[in-house]
């Protein structure tokens, strides 16, 4: 046993194939659509891109093998997802976009055989999309999940769910929803949540407006969703009643890391565009790429890319060992979200006026990566959690020493 | 004689009136248009907003009194322009948007009486808009103006101008252009440029596509402009032949500072939106605005606002004294562009998911202020100029000491 | 009335004289002592340096004219104190070092005629030094003054004071102490403090060890001080009983700003040393000062110097108008302390190995300026106060709007 | 084959033993000496500490087994060296301080059997110390090694070396020197250097003054060294003539990384001291460690520690695979040097006044870690190298695409 940072040969090959597929078949389509996937046109495009990914042998790297996937663990997903993220449309093409990718992960862990057949299989195969209905407008569940207000109460034949969600990614056009609702306790208590599965056409489930966010590449948008006396059967309960917050953890850690993988690919693209630009362009009697202040931006990007990857490697390894890895994923997510933002921002700066024009993809990338410092837990919330653990450990150490 | 930082009473009153006008009459219109002014619909809107500004007694604070303006110097413009910038449409309403505001400033300094009557007066009164045609695609004049390639050659009855410009703000719908063209020397030489005045309908002057930049609030957009054997008379020469780069300096210093004033207003709006948000919203058992990490963002915004204003005060005072103020304006511009970006970015972060949604104006503000770190000289070019002066001064001091 | 940033001619001349005096007479002495003033050798040195300052006509720029000073207000102190701060020994030479300078300021405002004659006059004339005994070890008064635990109780013929202070600057060798003690209320309450004057040789007043801090240039060090049943007469009360916290504010705002002035001078010296170094030295086929990454450090230093000065100008102007200026001084102090640290740090970096060696004064400057981010209120405490004001203002604005 | 980040059990045990040894036997000694090892008292102390380390079974983790070491590769050194670095005296105790550790590494790779016996063996066993004489005062070899001016010329029976070195770590008291001298070419050319071995008592080898640097924990100091017609035999040539720069690379990559390991341990100690402080101390009605701005500093430290370790892991793995790893070591060194500085600086800030006083070890740590941003290649030089590689790669990619 010794430190080893190399991926198996088949993973390296899959990453290489993904790289070629993205460059040859996906980037041109993204440019043509200026990085926007709308709910309507998006569905058609999604089917086409996924067919191409299947043909290229790169479809569903994360999904269980029995459902047509490659069955990769977290560590091995990293290089493949990063290559997919190089295009904003890449994750959709490989069926590894949020929230479907995280939902596949969670359903594979928690769903019962019938639920797997009915929901997981078509999702893994790209036949439907899904949504994860968790976040609510204030004063409900936002950065602080314990504020959950959506309620499910026992009813004849199952449960009745009432509540208002928003920022529900992919809701418009999703085939089914995973719904987080409070089955006991009061908002503010860290327990009492349950997850439910509901087809999109269930009476009482209504998708509202698209929230007009700065990012535009998520198929199905970020929507408001209303549950108005939505009746679901007993069999809709995912896992056990009142364990929803525990299951959310199963989803959250890995989902954070796959977000990092994808956005790191996007950041690398921005960096590549900028370095290519300054390697050609001249000014002030020099190649731009040979000017010290430009070199500093390039080097800082390289450092940020390397550090993001290194922290990701650590967190994925912990997850693959079955550890909760809460600290490692919080650290990697926080660093990555800020680093990715910086990388794209420096790349913009290196390209001058072109950096803020649609002639290059940098403005598009900038608008896509900014929310990552907020989505999946704002940096401030992760820092709070990291610090709390450190202070608790220091108190324990002191008590032990006394 | 002693340090005094107070503005005359009439300036303070004008700033107050502007503040009220913007809040009551302009912000609602901006929100309704989501911060976008298009060239076409924009013209109608501009006329309406400017009429309202005239009624409110806040129109053209910078323009000479004989043309209906308030005749304010640079120092006194600061508080008024900052209030106007609080709305993205405010500068247009007051007729102090780029590039018209800078063109008024320059024409008042350089134009001859006939040119003033024909071009300056209608511009100051808001009857036409204008454009300043300087920047060119690579390898032409960009961050480094000496790379100027557009040429004007002597011709029967005047000059013939040929060249290709881009990022020409306000070009679509402008009534006339101030054109920077090389009348002697070669690209790379720091001299030999001349400024010309040309009505927009001159044969050989063609406005091309709008460059699709991240900012959307500039009326007339940022366009490509082509001069194809454009013939202008002798009387079109602004000031003297071959002194264009000198005149550009007359325009650049003040124009940088009025940009700072306006964008500072925009940043302050973002900050106000965020502080109002965290003053109401609760989470983690506390008012958000009482959490330490949020307090840190608020305080850093306050510091950035104060420092921007303080550096602006210094630079404007130097300009009002008739100094070239190159160093002071470079320092103020560089600090301000980065501070304004940070302020809006922190404000976004404080508002969480809403910060990246159109429900609040922060995403809009973010997309508007980002280019200011590039427009009007990228931060890197200003830093280079600042450092060169410091190193030269050190060498001189050493020689003197020897 | 209009913005004016120029100092009166006599102030500019005093600043110039100070500049020459520091360079010619003080810097050589500082270098010789490697920036260390010990309590013992320091007293002799202080007397010599102050005699030289008197001869040069630059002694006591801040002190009332009737006591031999120049009587400058806060705004006019700025350029003079900055020149004095260029040498770590400069403030001692001019008799404007902490805490004497702040004590002169406060006594001039609060002391009664007899107290002025007995304490202020010899202090202003440089015949004695003084100390301000406020801060206490945990859990007493530190960043949070309301935690004050030192007590003064009524006694036959005056007050009996008991308590333990530390980080008392200049205590070793001081002629008298201004003591902050609680005369009513309990630790944690924001009131109930009184200031007392006590000669250093009062029985029950004991100066303990020098705390071995990273900064070494303060004459009399930072010491522990013990009050063991120290008896002071009624006439020792400075101002009124129970108003000590109010008086501390009178001292604190200006004292923060004069700290900024002095340390800004020190930072400018570091910058000058570095720019002179890179203007001469060559490497990588270029003058170091022409390399982009070095230019960036130089420019950032210039920006930090300019912004510090500009924020200082604002705060001093408010203070001179008689405003409490709490927000302006908190902003200026916080920005300055961090900027000064950055300036010295970048200057160190520019000088490479020499930057961390005693061959240049940079390591010395670095060790002196670091504590300023902590002394006089840590940056975090100032940020907290700034944010609290902003949030309160937002709440008020909202209430008014409703 | 799959990603694995776990160390072999025996390495984990060695790290644990080292941790206990440092805490129990070395930290108390460091505190007693206030972190200073002088050349004189240092030798006696070194012998004692190394004897204790041998008894604890933690001596020479890096040295070849045949010389009494543990024979660890780079990856496995990381956790052990980090534990050793937790005390400033730890590396000396384990015989892994610079420059001896790097010299052992290099001699093991390049020395011939006789040289190994004579120089490597006693060095590995801790019987002598050594120095690596490379850097020279301007205009000689500094950040840019190709500027090497020290010359070695063929002479009867060997080579005659003349030159002036400085910042030679450990020179005072070293048993022998590895000398870098130019055997062909001119200063500025990237070739023509040769390494020589010379006992410290060789005639013509003279150790000059200690350079008074901010760091004080290196035994033997940083000295000036003079070669005045130093005659060495043919057998003194290390490796081959004219290949000195190549060999320097063999030493430099690993030496950079072991520096990172050691300083990371020091930074972690600073962090631990600060977290322990804020976990106990109260202020502003709260435990300091529960205040948001303090939590932010703690979290940022945790992130910096994790990222440094993760980048180190990557670089060490590449080195263990026999790759030159120039980019990975430059990235890890640059990030680490700046992160370590930030960690200690934030830790200082968290402790307030105590952070800058000798009552806690933070001021000591701050003065030790600052030079690491300069030693072993300033951050600017590493960034320049990183950027050059990125721009070259972009140019190659473009050529390939054409």
Automatic annotation (TrEMBL), chains A, B, C, D:
<dbReference type="Pfam" id="PF02770">
    <property type="entry name" value="Acyl-CoA_dh_M"/>
</dbReference>
<protein>
    <submittedName>
        <fullName>Acyl-CoA dehydrogenase</fullName>
    </submittedName>
</protein>
<dbReference type="GO" id="GO:0033539">
    <property type="term" value="P:fatty acid beta-oxidation using acyl-CoA dehydrogenase"/>
</dbReference>
<comment type="subunit">
    <text>Homodimer.</text>
</comment>
<dbReference type="InterPro" id="IPR006089">
    <property type="entry name" value="Acyl-CoA_DH_CS"/>
</dbReference>
<dbReference type="InterPro" id="IPR006091">
    <property type="entry name" value="Acyl-CoA_Oxase/DH_mid-dom"/>
</dbReference>
<dbReference type="Pfam" id="PF02771">
    <property type="entry name" value="Acyl-CoA_dh_N"/>
</dbReference>
<dbReference type="GO" id="GO:0003995">
    <property type="term" value="F:acyl-CoA dehydrogenase activity"/>
</dbReference>
<feature type="domain" description="Acyl-CoA dehydrogenase/oxidase C-terminal">
    <location>
        <begin position="242"/>
        <end position="390"/>
    </location>
</feature>
<dbReference type="InterPro" id="IPR013786">
    <property type="entry name" value="AcylCoA_DH/ox_N"/>
</dbReference>
<dbReference type="InterPro" id="IPR009075">
    <property type="entry name" value="AcylCo_DH/oxidase_C"/>
</dbReference>
<dbReference type="InterPro" id="IPR050741">
    <property type="entry name" value="Acyl-CoA_dehydrogenase"/>
</dbReference>
<dbReference type="InterPro" id="IPR036250">
    <property type="entry name" value="AcylCo_DH-like_C"/>
</dbReference>
<feature type="domain" description="Acyl-CoA oxidase/dehydrogenase middle">
    <location>
        <begin position="131"/>
        <end position="229"/>
    </location>
</feature>
<keyword id="KW-0285">Flavoprotein</keyword>
<dbReference type="Pfam" id="PF00441">
    <property type="entry name" value="Acyl-CoA_dh_1"/>
</dbReference>
<keyword id="KW-0274">FAD</keyword>
<feature type="domain" description="Acyl-CoA dehydrogenase/oxidase N-terminal">
    <location>
        <begin position="10"/>
        <end position="127"/>
    </location>
</feature>
<dbReference type="GO" id="GO:0050660">
    <property type="term" value="F:flavin adenine dinucleotide binding"/>
</dbReference>
<dbReference type="GO" id="GO:0005737">
    <property type="term" value="C:cytoplasm"/>
</dbReference>
<dbReference type="InterPro" id="IPR046373">
    <property type="entry name" value="Acyl-CoA_Oxase/DH_mid-dom_sf"/>
</dbReference>
<comment type="similarity">
    <text>Belongs to the acyl-CoA dehydrogenase family.</text>
</comment>
<dbReference type="InterPro" id="IPR009100">
    <property type="entry name" value="AcylCoA_DH/oxidase_NM_dom_sf"/>
</dbReference>
<dbReference type="InterPro" id="IPR037069">
    <property type="entry name" value="AcylCoA_DH/ox_N_sf"/>
</dbReference>
<keyword id="KW-0560">Oxidoreductase</keyword>
